[in-house]
Amino acid sequence: MPALRKPQSPRDWVTLLIGAVWLYFSGQPLLMGLWSLGWDKSPGVITYSQPYRRFRTYRVDLRYTYNYQGREYAGDQYRFMFIVGLDRLRGWQVDAIQARYPVGEAVQVAVNPWRPSQAVLESGVDLESFLWPAAGLLIALAGLLPGREKRRNQKKSASPAAADANLAMSAGAGGRRKSGSRYYTAKLLALIGALLSLWGMSTLYAGWRSLNWPTTTGRVRYSLARTTGQNYRTQLWYEYHVDGVRYVAEEYRIGGSSTPFKDAARAVAARYPVGRIVKVYYNPSNPAEAVLEPGPWYGNFIIPAIGLLVLGVAFLTKKYADAVALLDARRAQKV
């Protein structure tokens, strides 16, 4: 990686400034989200729930009151998000969130113990919270890296003797580098395949384990089939009680509610209309985890199958690298 240096041109300074400003503003929601994971929990209630509609804008708009240390406060922060990411929520996501938190819904609010007037409905961060600061960091680094012309001049100014030596070394080690790169590819594929297999197997295990979960009675609060990119999803919200505590869940089966088939998503929504009394299977060690249809389904086998396929490709890649390395060794002996 080229060494960092002080910006040399106005363009470099502008790039550095833009990256720094972007990193500053996008990093704040990330840090606040991480910090909110340790905040105190306080009971509250939703007082307003209507999506924010403007020209080409559709956002979550929630308001709630909560009690903390004997005082009542009002808040409207749903989740700590970068302002650019607020408009990246799709319409069905906004509708599902608003349906999850109707007016009068009892909620647990994360309250900043150092500043009780600051609270958030859902603490923590998501993957996108890391992407925006990473983009700002890359932009800032672009202003600190030497320009293309300077790197080209540095290469030209290298001594001819050193260039000849490097050329000779690269020619002698070319075969070994190619063989080594194949081994690196095999190791990377093996790692990806192992992770996919473990993830898929854990989902399968959870599916079989859910067959023995205890049950309770629940009621469907929201049910609608939505288009999510290339797939379809049945967005459900159903409430249930365990030991006097109220919970709200959305998955009707282990592994998610998405499907590539539009009719299947509509059939699930029709099977679980709003207001229907349902039997809920909940995890006794974590009652907030629940499903309506226990047991594994065909979708749970896709990820493990892909993982095993990638492991097979990694094995073949290693065998090919072994064969190439052996052939290179024999050629070297002949030379």
How would you sum up this structure, described in words?
It is a single chain. This protein is an alpha+beta fold. The chain folds into 3 domains: 38-123; 175-213 and 298-335; 214-293, OB fold (Dihydrolipoamide Acetyltransferase, E2P). It is 48% helix and 24% strand. The chain has 9 helices and 13 strands. The strands form 3 sheets. Strands 8, 9, 10, 11, 12 and 13 form a 6-stranded antiparallel β-sheet that branches. Helix 1 runs antiparallel to helix 4 and helix 7 (174-209) runs antiparallel to helix 9. The longest helix has 36 residues, at 174-209. The chain is globular, with a radius of gyration of 28 Å.
Keywords:
single chain; alpha+beta; 13 strands; 335 residues; 3 domains; OB fold (Dihydrolipoamide Acetyltransferase, E2P); six-stranded antiparallel beta sheet; 24% strand
The domain tally reads 3
* Uncertain spans: none
Give the structural class.
Answer: alpha+beta
Through-space gap between termini: 36 Å
Task: Estimate the strand proportion.
Answer: 15-25%
Work out the number of β strands.
13
Whole-number mean pLDDT? 84
Q: Over all CA atoms, what is the radius of gyration?
A: 28 Å
- Described by the principal axes of the CA atoms, the overall outline is globular
SS element count, helices = 9
Biggest beta sheet summary: 6 strands, antiparallel
**Helical fraction:** 40-55%
| Element-by-element helix/strand order | HEEEEEHHEEHHHHEEEEHEEH
